[in-house]
Design brief:
The chain has 376 residues and is α+β, with helices and mostly antiparallel strands. The chain is built from 10 helices and 12 strands. Strands 6, 7, 8, 9, 10, 11 and 12 form a 7-stranded mixed sheet that branches. Strands 2-1-5-4-3 form a 5-stranded antiparallel sheet. This is histidine kinase.
Amino acid sequence: MCKPQSELSSLFKTFELDAECGDSSDPIPILSATKWILSILPIVYIYTDANEFMVEFNHTFAELVGLSIVETPQPLIVALREFPPLVSLFEKTLSEKIEYRSLLVHFERKDKLMHVLVDAHMVKRDQLVYGWVFACREIDNLMMIEAQVLRHDKLATAGKMAAGIAHEIRNPLTSIRGFLQVLERDLTAVGLQKEQVYIQLMLSEIDRVNQLVNQMLLLAKPADLILEIVTPRDVIESIASIVQSDALLRNVTCRFALETTSLVCVDRNHLKQVILNLVSNALDAMEDSGAGTLVIAAYDDVSNHNVHIDVSDTGPGIPSYMIDRIFDAFFTMKEHGTGLGLAICQRLVTEFGGEIRVFSKGFGTTFSIILPSVKE
């Protein structure tokens, strides 16, 4: 067999040639392929020698710390000086010779909080340490998925509660409403106009409670969908007059930018409900400003085979610390809101196979409904 090379890189287990010396016409070291794969993976890869100098690192690491991939090797701690949490971790690793897998570390990069899982592996042979291999993987998407799972769990819990108590609430409300209507008729017969006003107020409050129960029931069970293939443009145009009249009453300018030509598979009425709910929230957000602009846009995302329906306002925006909570059931920023509107919108869009995203940075907010496009 061929004698192993003396270079530090030959210590990798992947660097093994099965061919006898002279028997292989064109042997390709597995290590070369491994290094190429590591150079294109979205994983930070660092390889240091026994003196803690970086021997190799990939483009992902270079982008993270702002290094040129061809720079002269330098101490790992120097390269990471702008990221104290990583410096602290690696210093402890190198001094105490600790190996670990999937250790969670948080640090800031360009005013953004990063979440990474770090692996550390010691490269040694015959009890002699030749260096270290570090790998870091960003898990921002994982954190987002966990947040979505938690939100869905909350919706499921709210749904179970609603299913258990909805009928118990509805039955007495129906009886109360019926007796109030009888009382209203009797008061009308004897000319007690003032008392009729009180009856009307009570009936309106009962109707509001009934509406809340209906919304809770919508969370408790899947919606009865009647799916059909439609164009978002047609759906939006069918409610355009309602949106424009509501905007006019609130002194808000309404504009439409409907560029999409793709088809989506949705329940037409439920999609209308989602858009009108987002429009109502947008108009409410601009109510105190005295004027504003509402924009409803629809366009194709051809590369991802999606269609976007955006509802944008020029209101004060949503505080960053609230962004992650606005889709939670019963969370509301309105004085008399129920906190169920956005939760229901998200559930309906999810049942269409899509998602809702929100963008708000200090001024104005955009809710984007993203739906998969389909072919006829």
